[in-house]
Amino acid sequence: MSVHKSxxxxxxxxxxxxxxxxxxxxxxxxxxxYSMATILDAAGxxxxxxxxxxxxxxxxxxxxxxxxxxxxxxxxxSVVRGVNRAxxxxxxxxxxxxxxxxxxxxxxxxxxxxxxxxxVKLEGGAEIKESVTRILSAGVPVMGHLxxxxxxxxxxxxxxxxxxxxxxxxxxIEDALLLQELGCFSxxxxxxxxxxxxxxxxxxHIPIIGIGAGPHVDGQVLVVHDMLGINKEFKPxxxxxxxxxxxxxxxxxxxxxxxxxxxxxxxxxxxx
Length: 272
Ligand code: KIV
Known about the structure:
- 3-methyl-2-oxobutanoate binds at residues 52-53, 91, 121.
- Belongs to the PanB family.
- It is found in: Cytoplasm.
- The active site is at 190 (proton acceptor).
- This protein is α/β, with parallel strands linked by helices.
- Helix content is 41%, strand content 14%.
- Strands 1-2-3-4-5-6-7-8 form an eight-stranded parallel β-barrel, surrounded by seven helices.
- The termini are far apart.
- The model has no long low-confidence stretch (mean pLDDT 97).
- The structure holds 3-methyl-2-oxobutanoic acid (KIV).
- Residues 30, 49, 51-53, 91, 188, 190, 211, 221, 223 line the site of 3-methyl-2-oxobutanoic acid.
- 3-methyl-2-oxobutanoic acid (KIV) binds at residues 30, 49, 51-53, 91, 188, 190, 211, 221, 223.
């Protein structure tokens, strides 16, 4: 017997595929906690990504490498509790899938069982083929991630645009075709030339989601703290800021401090 928690029509991999086929762009944002997830889900975001960027924006690390599987599961389970409609993808953290496909399967199963997420995302192409195959064989939807893959930052050395040279572009196309052939339901392309992203989106039948990959892909993803302007320092060319929450929150907190110091807060009306 199945138990239905709500009548809302949930986003599925099948629906995402249909969206590509009918030319409807897919909206995706990161989320790391319950309260934010409820807002993003109610606002109509199609896919919520519990990104390992939590390592940067939630924990203050310089890279995504330190975040652990347990920490990702904690963030993901909080997000899942806030969602009615969106499809929730959980990043597999660095060290949980590279090199050993049995370990990769164990990690993916832990994510699915313990967080309630709907799919996982892995960075890389041919080099993680066995892990992707093994996870898919367990019935877990897999999203790929190519181009700038932040878990390999120490190999790249910088966060600049990837695949500008033909050899790297060719390898990226081959990796994308391989991930599709293995059965991935979608691929994220990060920080690559717009024309290359266009070629991939045209050649592949699965949805291609871009971040810094231009407009000719099937959907867009941004880190929610960046697009809401919570984080002021990060200003890459591809980022559009939809709010200045840093200023709004700073003003609100400064007013609170002022009111506490001046004993304006709490008033008689705000007391029992
Ligand atoms: O972790 C993350 O936020 C991501 C996006 C940048 C795609 O992988």
